[in-house]
Amino acid sequence: MLKIWKILEKVERKNLVILLFLIIFSVLFELLSIGLIIPFTSIVLTESSHFSSFFNNFEFLKNLNNTQLTLFVCFIILLVFLIKNLFLSFFYYFEGYFLNSTIHNTSSRIFSNIIKGKLVYNNEFHSSEIVNDLTKEVVMFGNFLSACTLILTEIPIIICLSLLVLFYETDIFLILFFITGISTLIYFIIVKDKIKIIGRLRKKNEEVKLKYLQEGLAGIKEIKIYEKESFFINKYREMSFKIAKNYYKFNFYSKFARLFFELIFILLVVVIIIFFTYKSVKPSDYLPFLTLLFVASFRIMPGLNRIVSSLQTYVYTKIAMETVYKKLSSEKNTKNIKENKVDRVDKIDIKDVFFKYKDKNYILKNFSKTINKGDILAISGKSGSGKSTLLDLITGFKIPNEGNIYFDDYNNNLQSKNFFKQISYVPQSIFLFDDSIKNNIIFNDIENFDEKKFQFSIKISKLDDLLNRLPDRENTHVGEIGKKISGGEKQRIGIARAVYKNPDILILDEATNALDSETEEQIFSELQKFVNKKKILIFVSHKEELLKYSNKTVQL
Question: Which residue range forms the structural domain that includes residue 273?
Answer without folding.
Answer: 2-335
